[in-house]
Design a protein that fits this description.
This protein is an alpha/beta fold and 336 residues long. Helices cover 34% and strands 25% of the residues. The N terminus is likely disordered.
Length: 336
């Protein structure tokens, strides 16, 4: 759907929770108009960012906007995407695309049938250190991938619905899906998934999950996710090993990527140049999505990527429940 005028493009943000401030500030930075609808928190969100207009219903939002940004709890995603598609609006949906792979497929089909674009918000693909690592993989500097290790730890969320797996999908669907998506982006389609989780009793709700993914290429990925006690410093790490060497990063060290592939530059230091944030990765992500909405190239993450991420996370959740490895059927080939 083309915007209604060359001068004005309006984003309709649905939801005002944890991720909404990062999205709203990014849209405002791009100079678009924003309307916001949420069951709670919309006036405070808009007031805190000095931009946006609060509307009183989803119908009012759909009437006022050119595209919808879904920032609501996971279990509502598929329904809101479907309503946006029915209204002929382009859709950007915060990860995960839906609570289940069946719902994700329904959302994709709704957008396809309506002729609108749909992109999931897998922002880790836009973090500079992760993007640089992926570029090294794609360019073949590490050779054939053998083993990947990802870890992600942060304070457990505060909203109660996160701890009801029937609403959030649990730790693996809410948090580890970031690294499961990235593991697939690097090493290709997934053959089997095996997972184990440990958890404390309420009220701490500390949970840690280990997911072992075997790719059809033969590579193996290990993904560790943790919801830790309040106040825990957020930290991510990755280690990617191939036949030509090893690439590592630890956010705790506040340093650029450390590459161990012999002499990678004339100095032989094996250290990539520092890549400080020049803009928020959320802004980078939303900039690509907005460009696609306006007729530009698609962003680096597609609706099918979002679907596959849900499928992998769903398989991990099944493995947690059954204690057995889960074999995934081959991914559906989709023309891009």
């Amino acid at each position: 759907m083309a915007p209604r005028s060359d001068q004005s493009y309006t984003i309709g943000m649905v939801g005002a929770g944890g991720i909404a401030p990062a999205h709203l500030s990014s849209w405002l930075s791009l100079g678009v108009s924003v309307v916001v609808y949420s069951l709670e928190g919309a006036p405070e969100l808009v007031a805190g960012h000095g931009g946006g207009v609060v509307v009183e219903s989803l119908d009012e939002l759909l009437e006022a906007c050119d595209a919808v940004d879904v920032c609501t709890p996971t279990y509502t995603h598929a329904d809101i995407v479907g309503q946006a598609a029915a209204a002929g609006r382009q859709v950007f949906c915060e990860k995960p695309l839906a609570l289940t792979s069946a719902d994700a497929r329904t959302a994709i089909d709704a957008c396809t049938q309506a002729g609108v674009q749909l992109y999931p918000g897998h922002v880790v693909r836009f973090f500079p250190e992760f993007a640089a690592m992926h570029a090294w993989v794609v360019d073949g500097h590490l050779g054939e991938l053998a083993v990947q290790r990802f870890s992600r730890i942060g304070s457990a969320p505060s909203a109660p619905w996160f701890f009801d797996d029937s609403l959030s999908g649990g730790l693996v669907v809410d948090q580890s899906i970031h690294d499961l998506d990235f593991a697939r982006w690097n090493a290709g389609e997934v053959a089997t998934v095996f997972a184990r989780e440990s958890a404390s009793a309420a009220p701490e709700q500390v949970r840690s999950c280990q997911v072992v993914v075997t790719h059809t290429s033969g590579a193996i990925s290990y993904v560790t996710g943790t919801w830790a006690p309040p106040g825990t410093t957020f930290r991510t790490t990755f280690e990617v090993a191939g036949t030509n060497g090893l690439l590592q990063h630890d956010s705790r060290d506040h340093q650029p990527l450390v590459v161990n592939v012999g002499s990678v530059d004339e100095s032989g230091t094996g250290l990539l140049p520092a890549t400080p944030f020049v803009e928020s990765p959320y802004l980078t992500e939303i900039r690509e999505v907005y460009a696609a909405f306006r007729g530009g190239p698609p962003p680096r993450v597609t609706a099918e990527d979002g679907y596959e991420a849900v499928r992998i996370a769903e398989a991990a959740a099944e493995s947690l429940s059954t204690g057995r490895a889960v074999q995934l059927s081959p991914a559906v080939e989709v023309a891009r």
